[in-house]
Specification:
The protein has a domain of about 60 residues. By secondary structure, the protein is mainly alpha-helical. It has 4 helices and 2 strands; from the N terminus they run ααααββ. It has a two-stranded antiparallel sheet. The radius of gyration is 32 Å and the shape is rod-shaped.
Length: about 120
């Protein structure tokens, strides 16, 4: 198939007009913003899923605290540092080397929970 000069010129004009339109409308910028929003949406969905799991755990904790007297006592003793008369509390301090979790690189707090619970 052989293009005539008019058809070639028309094709060049159409391509140029398409490029001018795309540049004026910033179609590539719109596409990049769309992709960025899509990535953000994916991140937000993962966060919502994590928060839903946390909510479920908290609901289970609330249920345990409302029905289990031993759990209530353990929570109060742990959170307020209360002990029963005659109990001896042993506090174990970790050395600085043991406080760093090698997998996460984070500092772990020593376990201060009451061992009798």
């Amino acid at each position: 198939m052989h293009f005539s000069r008019k058809k070639g010129t028309a094709l060049v004009v159409v391509v140029l007009l398409t490029l001018v339109y795309a540049f004026q409308r910033d179609l590539y910028g719109l596409y990049l913003r769309y992709r960025n929003r899509e990535a953000n949406l994916s991140t937000e969905r993962r966060e919502v899923e994590s928060l839903e799991q946390q909510r479920q755990q908290l609901e289970e904790r609330i249920e345990a605290l409302s029905t289990d007297a031993v759990e209530v006592e353990a929570t109060i003793r742990r959170d307020r540092g209360l002990v029963r008369e005659g109990e001896t509390i042993f506090r174990i301090e970790l050395s600085p080397e043991d406080r760093t979790d090698p997998e996460e690189g984070a500092t772990r707090e020593p376990d201060t929970r009451d061992p009798s619970t």
